[in-house]
Please model this.
Amino acid sequence: MGTSEALHTQLGLLFEDELNPVAPKAQAKVAVPEGLDLDERINPVEDQEEESDATVEESDEEREQERKKKKAAADVHKEKGNAAYKSKSFEEAIGHYEKAIEALPDEITYYNNLAAVYRAQCNLTDAETLMYEAATTARKVLGADHPHTKIFERAHKALSQANRTNPIFTQ
Model:
């Protein structure tokens, strides 16, 4: 097995198992990026009039129904992308996964699937970009401490490191 095949295989293994959360002691050793204020809210709180419980429940139901419709439409593209990927029709798979992301941009699975296509093409530059987007989306949707968020962040870091240390994969 060549170096590029071995690296490709190792990178694929990053996405197979669930990782355990990072211990607080280890987290303390990670430097906070310059300019990042951990006490600053990501989404500012807006002054809103208090709504009745019935209105809130109705709004939640409407949002849930709308999300289900979007997810159903996006999943059609995901399934077509999966079929194209399995038949090694990578460009077709890319198109379907991109449409799935467009339809439902907060669904992390679609980013991961698209990154898998790029990895299969040995295009780690685009795979790295997608894993960054997946990690960012996971942080917003699931929260920073969720195990899946950490998986995507580690995968992005690994792809980033591989991309910079192995010129074979840069395109």
User: Anything to note?
Assistant: The mean pLDDT is 78. The helical segments are 3-13, 24-28, 53-86, 90-103, 108-120, 124-142, 147-165.
